[in-house]
Amino acid sequence: MIFKQNNHRKWLAIIFLVFFFLLEIMIVTNNSSTIGIDHSIQNILGTMVSPINTKIFSAITFLGSPIMDSLYLIVIMLILFFKKKRITSFWIALVLIGGNIISFLVKITVKRQRPIGKIIPASGYSFPSGHVFGTTLVILTLIILVLPYLKNQTIRSLLKIILVIWLILVAVSRVYLHGHFPSDVLGSILLASTWWEFSELLYLRYYNNLKGLKLMK
């Protein structure tokens, strides 16, 4: 099995989901506190705007784009497949496809407009951020499914820190470039974490069915 039974997993999924829905409600109702926090953070990042910072964050936002995140997951999926970890590869594919569908459905349901004054072009709706959503899934995949294969504990810990820093950088880049509000990137992390936990629960629920399909390697 990829995952072991864990009673905390269900509660984590519920907690992430509840916080996501609360944030979504605050955004849909134009909650003044949410708007105030968004604008405060945007103003702080606005003081950092410079040609060099724009180039750096533009590069980060490209590397953390939905297309690149999908590519990273496909590469991980193929490597695991050829390493005879077929069920893990298959599961990642479902997480990727299902996650993209869920993120899209939330976008067209909430229909939040993007911030004004975009530094680089950005189309579509603002909530949630596809960049941060996809990056969160990539990082969770690496930390939970890939890094455990490394025997050196120090290297594993260092890579985990680097991956978390990368997520923060992608999130900051989206706000810096005025592609998203801070609440958008927070919502993306919550939504991706919710989907990840529920995906684990679905895997455990249908483990025997997958085994019957002889995908279990």
Automatic annotation (TrEMBL):
Instruction: Give yes or no: UniProt keyword Iron-sulfur.
Output: no
Q: Which UniProt keywords apply?
A: Membrane, Transmembrane, Transmembrane helix
Cited SUPFAM superfamilies: Acid phosphatase/Vanadium-dependent haloperoxidase
Q: Report the superkingdom from the record.
A: Bacteria
Q: Which residues form the Phosphatidic acid phosphatase type 2/haloperoxidase domain?
A: 88-200
Q: Where are the transmembrane segments?
A: 12-29, 56-82, 89-110, 130-150, 157-177, 189-207
Show the CDD domains listed in the entry: PAP2_like_2
Say yes or no: keyword Acyltransferase present. Answer: no
Name it: Phosphatidic acid phosphatase type 2/haloperoxidase domain-containing protein
